[in-house]
Amino acid sequence: MTIATTYTLPFSSPLPGRSDATVVDLFEQTADHHESAIAVRQGARTLTYEQLAAHVNLLARVFRNAGVETGDVLGINGRSMLSVATVLAVLKTGAAILPLEPSLTPAERDRLLQISGARAQVMSTEEACTLLPSTAVPHIARPGSAYVQFTSDSNGDPKGIVARHGGLSHYTRWQRDTFAIAPGDRVGQLANWSLEVIIREILTPLISGATLCLPTERSLQASHIFAFARDCALTILHVVPSLARHWIADPTSDLALPALRTTFFAGEPLTSSLVHSWRQRVNTTAAVVNLYGSTETTLAKCHHVTAS
Predict the structure, then answer these.
(1) Residue 13: exposed, middle, or buried by beta-carbon count in 10 A (0-12, 13-18, 19+)?
(2) Backbone phi and psi for residue 120, each to the nearest 5 degrees, phi listed first
(3) Strand duo 186-188 + 211-214: pairing
(4) Among 13, 50, 72, 304, fewest CB within 10 Å belongs to which?
(5) CB–CB of 241/260 below 8 Å?
(6) What pLDDT is stored for residue 124 in this prediction?
């Protein structure tokens, strides 16, 4: 059996007008042009681009004054709007981010901090950020390092991967421009914070003038996720195929998302039967995009837009 398909490599040629701008530069340019637009929403609370940029600048100064230096690694623990500001603030200091899922046990979190050589971790709530020193031996990443993510080595142990600003800004610009993500789009943040997808869920909308929508509570139940998506009128989603399959398995769940225009699937094989079921239950006209890339690449290496 022959399967005829075409995969596009987003990094196979330079983007038009490619520059050395980091994602922080791209965010600040966007904030300058869309000051009053909503950058982040969580429940009834919102931050405009102007307000988010002010938080980022303040936090970056606080971190610098606390001794954070270029090349340091900082863990970020939280799911609030201030956690989003912290991501950008740490990057602005020249340090690399290590996103940490709040549901990790203390032992799991400490292990990742130790392996990454994080100088400190930032605990973020709705109201405040706390910078806590790490017991790890600090590891100085190369200048230009943007984030640390983990994959598994041949023994199943965590293996840290350091991604650089050049690849990160290239990818986020590619995703923004290829799929016309722009002001008026609303992007859901569903991923576990210890997974690499969190990087594109947060940063792509914030360099695009779109709104990043955060759930008010952590639940992956279909009833909660799809109510949240409808309440925010989400237009963009990133989804893992096994989770989508779990949602679709319940025939009584209301999965309709009329505002949705693009779903990005990644992390696992995407089958044609799942694409068909997703379109039947969620949105018949929204684009379905299959992304692929190992953790050693920056977020994704290949993409395929499925036939309508």
Answers:
(1) exposed
(2) -160, 175
(3) parallel
(4) 13
(5) no
(6) 81
